[in-house]
Sequence to fold (548 residues):
Amino acid sequence: MIDLLYLMSSICFVLALKGLSSADSSCAGNLCGMSGMGIALLAAYLGKQTGNGHLIFWAVVVGGAVGLSIARKVSMTDLPQMIAGFHSLVGLAAVLIACTVYAAPDQFGIDASPDGGWFWRVEMGIGAAIGAITFSGSVIAFLKLQSSYKWYHVHPALNVFITVLLLCSLAGFVLLKNSYSFSLAVLTSFALGTALIMPIGGADMPVIVSLLNSCSGWAAAGIGFTLHNDLLIITGALVGASGAILSRIMCRSMNRTLGNVIFGSCHGSLQKNTDRKDQSFTHGAPEEAAFLLKNATSVIVVPGYGMATSHAQHALREMGEALKKRGISVRYAIHPVAGRMPGHMNVLLAEANVPYEDVFSLDDINREFPSCDVAYVVGANDITNPAAKKDELCAIYGMPILEVEKAKVVLFLKRSMGTGYTGVDNELFYAPNTMMLLGDARETTEAILKVL
Amino acid sequence: MTNLFTETTTHELTVFVLACFVGYYVVWRVTPALHAPLMSVTNAVSSVIIIGAFFSVAQTGTARICGSVAIALAAVNIFGGFAITHRMLNMFHKNR
Fold:
């Protein structure tokens, strides 16, 4: 009976993910997920020797209240750090559960006697280690996203050392059945998570956040193996696969491998930047930009992380509406790695009530740039840099870009003339058809709006 | 090796591998526009480890405290994750 309820709940979880294949079915999918969770909780409660109803009830109430208030208050700009913070909680919960199992294996139906096999130690060790890596890694990611926390260079040898130590302590835990090695394994996993995420910079965050998402799933699956619970295994595998696919999509959109993101540094390009001090660029005023926009027939807006930091999405939508009233077509082009997490820009635009059908992905919009009059780039740099196509030596070579340079006029909203995260110079700034609008993206857009 | 691949372990591995395949094919169909809700909903769903913590609180002493902390942490995730997903999906929905 309990197992059947678990089966129902797994089906609900699969349907919840399936629902996200289109915006229409997504709300129903989320409801499916919620009911799946409800069924799972009910089944677990009715199930084995859970006992202690009061304690469970109050823990759920307190946790639930905190969760709901966070979800209600958080602004969509802060979404990436909230997701990272939530991942850390899953990791910590997995570690805590593994510790309680370790303290009294027989209570969980595990035969811990010498002839009871040693495979449960492997499962539990891996589950606890992944949980601990998820926890400390997500905490570091959270701090970085929350407060431009600096990244420190970690010597690769240190990573290797910690990994070897972790493997040794896991082996010690499995083979020698040594109690210290379990604690050591958990502690080294905490250290490994910290050391791995510490040197990673802001623009690689979409990969890291999805990777941690994947890890939280694998940790849940590890706990499921330990407790012989099929629901946990299924759910963990679903989440793990989902996060892995997202990290793969993100890596592919940067033309980098996962190993390169984690271990390779991306600071500075291989080639020396040409000295651009003498080169002139066109510095525009909001009035000129407004004039160009008014006389266009088609405008494509390219948002980047700068839109999120300056909260420019509402001003952008108003500008889009003002242009549409004049019969100008306004579309939005979104690069997969724009922002700090997958789909970040889409959520921000949806928050500002930008119509869903005006938002296009990289593959769909790229052929439209040659026929467009104005490309309006808001705080995006590397994802538009033509060097990715031509310059084999630059750090972002091969990365698919939004081909804004093919538009008749490019309006570049940027805080300063500095290079992007990768440090690669963007020749687009100095192109004859580019106008730079330096300053806060929201203020500039609002100024343009006033003129319109 | 005989006690490594017991019947339970083989069964669990089967379930795990098949679930990975299901996840793989389902998630590739998710539209890129909904990747952010996908992350928050998978985050909520992975908190199903709360049922592991349900068994922990049945014990005594430190294990019980650890168990209740784990339940509270997972509950933050479950409620927070589903609520934020709901909020996001509503935004996408009203703009259609």
User: Anything to note?
Assistant: The mean pLDDT of chain B is 87. Chain B has two domains: 1-30, 33-94. Helices of chain B lie at 7-28, 35-46, 50-56, 62-94.
